[in-house]
Amino acid sequence: MKILKLLTATILLSAFSHSAFADEQADAQMITNSTFCAMYSTRLTQTSDSGLQVKGVNLNARFNGPVFNRVLQVMNQTYGRTWLESNARNGSMTAMQLSQSELLYNPEYARQCDAFADKVEKEWRGK
Fold first, then answer.
1. Of 118, 106, 105, nearest to 59 (Cα)?
2. Domains identified in the chain, total number
3. Where is the signal peptide (predicted)?
4. Residue 21's pLDDT is what?
5. Is 109 domain-assigned?
């Protein structure tokens, strides 16, 4: 009976740890993606192409809006500043590694950032 209880406790703890790790990984990816999209939209606003500038301003407003500010606040409280800065740095490094032409003239980035913003805003609006 003791072995069964120990085994059950071990399985539950293992499942909880795995779930917590998976949640942390998903949160880290969300911060990385948010930072990438914020940098991407900022670079769009700095182009000489007025269409891209408007797209950049619109995206930038979303990634600097209240929902994403709340995400950052919760992540900072949950994981701490060092964790938050490290994952944000991953997103900024990815954005900086792309060439100017890749970043500005590939509409797939804008589409993906829009879809990502929709998902996060839907999930976090009430939190």
1. 118
2. 1
3. 1-22
4. 63
5. yes
Token reading at 65:
């809006």
Residue among 105, 107, 110 at smallest CA distance from 57: 110
In a domain, 69, yes or no: yes
How does pLDDT run across 13-68, given as a tens digit for each residue? 444 444 556 789 999 999 999 999 998 888 888 888 888 889 889 999 999 999 99
Q: Is residue 73 part of a domain?
A: yes
pLDDT computed for residue 75 by the predictor: 95
Distance of CA 16 to the CA centre of its chain: 23
Environment class of 84 (CB within 10 Å of its CB; exposed 0-12, middle 13-18, buried 19+) = buried
Please tell me the distance from the alpha carbon of residue 55 to that of residue 42, in angstroms, as a whole number: 10
Question: Which residue range is the domain that position 114 belongs to?
Answer: 26-124
Q: What is the per-residue pLDDT for 28?
A: 94
Give 79-113 pLDDT, tens digit per residue. 999 999 999 999 999 888 877 777 777 788 888 99
Report if residue 37 sits inside a domain. Answer: yes
